[in-house]
Amino acid sequence: MLKAVLLQLCATILAVAVSAALFGVRGAISAAGGGLACVLPSWMFAVRLAAISRKAGTASVAAFVAGELIKVASIVGLLVLVWALYPQLHWGAMLIGLILALKANLFAFLVKT
Q1: What pLDDT was estimated at residue 52?
Q2: Which terminus has fewer CB within 10 Å in the chain: N or C?
Q3: How far are the Cα atoms of 18, 56, 57, 96 from residue 100, in angstroms, in the given order?
Q4: C-alpha–C-alpha distance, residues 82 and 87, integer Å
Q5: What is the band of 113 on the pLDDT scale with cuts at 50, 70, 90?
Q6: Residue 83's pLDDT is what?
Q7: Cα–Cα distances in Å, from 29 out to 20, 65, 97, 99, 110?
Q8: Interatomic CA distance for residues 91 and 99, integer angstroms
C-alpha cells in the first residue's frame, strides 16, 4: 500500500511541474492541492491498514471497507477545503493533479519491490 502512496506522491509532483509550465504558479498550487487531497487520505488509510494487520495479523473486510469510505469522504472534504481556501484556484490544474494522483495506483503493480 505504501508503494502506491509513493507513486501517487510522484504523480502529484509531476502534475505540479506540468501545471507550473502550463499555468504558472497559480496552476502549480492548484495541482498540488488536487494531488495532495488524494495522497494524504491514501497515506492515512495505508498506515491504518498496516497497523491493523500488525495488531490482528490480517485486516478484516469491514476495516477495509470502512477505511475506504472514510478515505473517499476525506478526499471530497479536502477538495472542498482547497476550493474554499484558495480563491485563485485553477480548475484545470487541480483536476490534472487529482487525476494523475488517482491513476498512479494503476502503476503500483508494475513496480517491483
Answers
A1: 81
A2: C
A3: 11, 33, 33, 6
A4: 9
A5: low
A6: 96
A7: 8, 31, 10, 15, 29
A8: 12
DSSP line for 43-77: HHHHHHHHHHHHHHSS--HHHHHHHHHHHHHHHHH
Residues in the chain: 113
The 10 Å Cβ neighbour count of residue 42 is 22
Q: φ, ψ for residue 89 (rounded to 5)?
A: -55, 130
The separation between the first and the last C-alpha atoms of the chain, rounded to the nearest angstrom, is 12
Judged against a pLDDT cut of 90, whether residue 32 lies above it is answered with yes
Report whether 99 contacts 30 (CB < 8 A): no
Is the separation of the CB atoms in 26 and 86 below 8 Å?
Answer: no
- pLDDT for residue 110 is more than 90: no
